[in-house]
Amino acid sequence: MLITSIALQNYRNYQQQRCDFCPGINLFLGDNAQGKTNLIEAIYYLSIGKAYRPVKDEQLILWGKQNFMIRGTLESRQGTTTAEIQYSIGEKKSKTFKLGGLALKKAEELSGSLTSVLFSPDNMSIIKGSPQERRHFLDYDISQISRSYAKNLAIYQRLLVQRNNLLKRLREKRVMSPEKNSELELWDAQLAEVGSKIIEKRLHTLAKMNPLTRLMQRKLTGGQENIEIHYLFNRKTEIQSSTDLKAMLHAARDEALKEDLRFGTTQWGPHRDDLLITLNGIHLKQYGSQGQQRTAVLALKLAELEFFRGESGEYPILLLDDVLSELDENRRQQLLELIQEKAIQCFITATEKSGLEKMDKRQIKYFEVRQGRIISHEMQA
Ligand SMILES: Nc1ncnc2c1ncn2[C@@H]1O[C@H](COP(=O)(O)OP(=O)(O)O)[C@@H](O)[C@H]1O
Ligand SMILES: [Mg+2]
Fold it and tell me: How many CB atoms lie within 10 A of CB 181?
């Protein structure tokens, strides 16, 4: 899979920018706060129709403007196409998606047209961060390849808001036996239905990701370390795909009902789950060294590359934002060799070139990023 060019309009600190990429390594050099991460963010945006960071679309519009546009030319085994996203805050907010010039109804319909693996220093949060950050990791990957998953997530989110609003109304009315409320029953049945589909897909994905991650971790550590990702229902109970998910959700609902009413929020469901990552059976977040945690994140990212290839038959693009300087020499070389060996299109940002000299020069295109402008340096390649 390739992205051969991008056009940005009023996106973050880019006013008007076009950029042609090479199929090998695209290297973006520049000082801090010039727009390197913003470019990476825009490319990723095309994969999923939203930002990878928890940021509102309004914040992505160049200050003082009313709209932004991202358009990319994509190449895959299906052929060449363009994907375009426009967001505007004029009289009313609107967001439109186009694929091959045709308007799409929902962001989900972008799924599969560009798959991206993003690796940045923030990814340490997969290990060290909150349950939400771990779910995010899984949700964003699955949403890129599965329209139905992305759709179910959006539906689930809406149901959850509606249920929570109802809980608050019931609380205000001091309803004592909410289990007899037919409206609540209706939401709960739907939440359990959609929620079970979401959890099921997550479990299937982990079943595929686990052997890939284990293989990568073993490669990176000379066979020393065994990594495993476990799925924790309600942040505590480990479950597998054989579990009766709907029954489990209904039971969790009954158990939490009184508390839900008290707090006006829903305390069960896929939005309350977590991942537990272990290394040789030991909780990596609590007991792993910094080095082990970093290696594990790299293994996860490499596993994502293989996972996407397994799902779509093609390698995704790889976005490496500011990470090469964080890896030790050995890991950096392993990563760069892999990219070149598998012919993965890659976008690397860095403040300086050092550490990248050994790459195959024919495959590299250099860019300089300065104050929201990208200048290509064809001559250096
Ligand atoms: N909506 C926006 N409009 C204009 N500038 C923005 C917007 N959002 C962020 N910026 C600017 O973008 C710059 C950060 O760019 P970034 O891509 O993170 O830099 P880096 O090159 O260090 O990765 C900052 O100067 C920030 O003020
Ligand atoms: Mg940056």
Answer: 16
